Structure formats: C-alpha cells, structure tokens
Amino acid sequence: MAVRKIIRIDPEKCDGCGLCVHACAEGAIDLINGKARLISDTYCDGLGACIGDCPQNAITIIEREAAEFNEEAALSNAGSKKAVHRERKPIKVAPSVHSCPGSMSQTLQTFNPAKVAGQAKASQGGRPSRLANWPVQLMLAPIKAPYFDNANLVIAADCVPFACPDFHEKFLAGRTLLIGCPKLDDVQHYLDKLTRIFMQNRIKSIEIAYMEVPCCRGMVRLVETALDEAGVEIPVLLTRLGIKGNILEVSQFPCHQEIPK
Q1: Domains of the chain, start order
Q2: How far apart are CA 239 and CA 247, in angstroms?
Q3: What is the pLDDT at residue 121?
C-alpha cells in the first residue's frame, strides 16, 4: 500500500447527521451505530467533497498508508446502496445548518418559455428564476447527476452573476450551471472534479463565463486542462465580461469543436 490522501472522521465530533453520506458520490461513508464511518479505503478518492457538508468539522483529509482508490468498485458500491432508514441522533445545532440543500443534488425545472412567462406574471413583473439545478457551487456539485446528461453546461466565475444584471436570461435558459472562483478556491480539487464530470457524463456543450480581471482567466485554463485530462472533445464557448457586466468578447476554443447552431 502507498501513502496517499484519504479522509478521516473524528468520532468525537461526529453527531451522526448523515450529510456526508449523501455528499459522497462514491458511497465511501455510511452511518454505523449513529456515527459516520469510512467503510472502505478503496471507495475514498481523497478529494474531500464531503468536508463542506459536515457542520461539526469532523472530517479532515490526512495522508496515510491506504489501498488505492478503485473508481469502478466505488461507483458499483454507490449504485448498489439501498435506501435504508437509520436511527439518528437528534440534531444539535440550528436546523438551517443541518438541512443545507447543498448536500442533495436536485433538478429544479426544465426550461419552458410559456411557464417562465407565467411565473413572471404571477410574480407581479419580477424576473422568474431560470436556475435548473442544485447545487451550483463546483465544490458541492456531484460527479454524476441527471441534469448533466446531454447538458449545455455553463461554468461561471462566481463574480459573473453579480456583475451581469440579466445573468438568468443570458446564460441560464435551458442550461446547467456550475460556479467557482479560480483564485480563492481549491483549483486542484476543481480540476479533478471537472475531469471526472467530463468523463462520466455526456456533456453537449460548455460556455465559460468569466470576468475581465486577469485572475479570472484561470477558469478558462482550468476547463481546458480538465478536457485534455478527460480525453474528450466538447464544444466550448468563451464569454468574457467587464466589471460593469457588459460582454467584452465571445470566442471559442480553437482546439475544440464548434458550438452547434
């Protein structure tokens, strides 16, 4: 066995809320006697997607001798897990923290122009949401989800929705959204996750929406590297925005296919 990164769950801190069980796409964690447990080293990829869902900070990444991660076995395990109701300890902190929807992937809506128009009317002239998936933060997003199948994927730097006043209308209609910051977040984790998303789902197209500031260009490099590591060709559109929300430039990766008309 080699020394590699793997999660560690502190049983003293764990209160058995179970959020990490749902957050782990590989099914590496289960609840045993009211506590979260790593059930097999071979199921844990060491990326720590479960960490952000732990309200007790009971999960950390350590380096120790461990069997190699077996992706095929992990996915088989996750797919074969049965939905079993388990007795859990009472929640010890605010319900709003424990019930964070970031722990569960959801398809919110299928885009329907007539329905959107009806929603706008019902909201007394307000703009209806066109968000079709949850979670949107790349750190929390699952590797596989129904909304990734044959998806037109928008990967946006997380400043873009704040700068662009009509972000929903320009970028979200009929799209799946992921957001992240290439400067402040864990870029290696993003790279690993995007590579696996591209490998394990049928992505139809990608649009990268990023800001004009130099650090934001990292989102473009990140996606391009993930595509190369995944060994797939997906049409990619680049949309660069100014800090006032105006679109400065629209282009395509020269090395990838053109966006379908």
Answers
A1: 2-80 (3.30.70.20), 105-252 (3.40.50)
A2: 7
A3: 52
